[in-house]
Amino acid sequence: MTPDTTQMPSADLLCPHGSHEDNRQMQPTPTNTEETVLFTKKMQVVVGIATSSRPTILAELVRQLAHQTVKPHRIIISYAKPDDISAIPQTLRDMASVEFVTGHQGAAVQRNVILDRLKDEDIVLFFDDDFFPHPTYIARIIEAFRDNPNILGATGHVLADGAQGPGLLIEDANRLNAQADTAAVSKIEDAFNTYGCNMAFRCAAIKRLGARFDERLPLYSWYEDIDFSRSLLPYGRVVKVNSAQGVHLGSKTGKGSGIRLGYSQVINCIYLAQKGTYPWTSAIKSAGRHLIINSLKSLKPEYYIDRKGRLLGNLIGLGDLFRNRITPERAATLHSKKRAS
Description:
Elements: H1 11-14, H2 33-42, E1 45-50, H3 55-65, E2 74-79, H4 90-95, E3 98-102, H5 107-116, E4 123-128, E5 131-133, H6 137-147, E6 151-161, H7 170-179, E7 188-190, E8 198-202, H8 203-209, H9 224-230, E9 237-248, H10 258-275, H11 280-297, H12 307-322
Parallel strand pairs: 1-2, 1-4, 2-3, 6-9
Antiparallel strand pairs: 4-8, 5-9, 6-8, 7-9
Helix pairs in contact: 10-11, 10-12, 11-12
């Protein structure tokens, strides 16, 4: 759950070196071997991955993380079923310093298990198991946090997002990352929220604030990234680091049912607005937009999206709203035969 803000420390404790408006620009830093060593000595990054039903994709992601120009101090993989991690060979587990934790399935709860395993690292970097970062991604994130002490949360630039369509292949991600020119991009800009497929947080800040992912948002945990990152905004900056780039496959494997997602599209917005982490105007627009889109596209749905299931979930959510029953956890009890996207 998001902590009670009345008990949180002041912004001065977390951002001692300036206001949220400071240091909006930074210069790209070379990522040669000598600088890589300096980075890792000064700031340690732990990568956290909550995974479900994508063992082959996950194994390739771990392999690529082991070849970042700045390697993560640790990789913590939170899984629900043994098959989720079955494709990662022992040699790769050892080479990449991979640790495994297990528990209940769901983005929020699996990420909280990762938070519980943090030690004295400086940055925790959450990747979806189908997000493939550019080889310099971690280096660029470190630069941003190192040069801007008032940054508490950051998200990178997504070169292509398969979640907006039928999905991308690993080969697509490799090609797009190879073509990217990250050195030509240096601007940091304030962001409304971090994007869940790639988001980084300053460990000291989230520990002091007691920040947690809200486990009332079950399974796919729709908008848990908005809730978590925006809970930090009163105490520091949440930014987009345009030089930290990568590709989100948007794999349709491992998604829940359309009806569950549709329910969350309506209820989660209102729930977060009641909490205060999502503006009411944005919540109403988001719920209404998804209802309209699902209504229109259910007449001729895409082959990779369960539009009718989403629409049914939207309508069930509206019914609960009219009854003043704001219970996001109910999504886990709804069932349909098709899968979501």
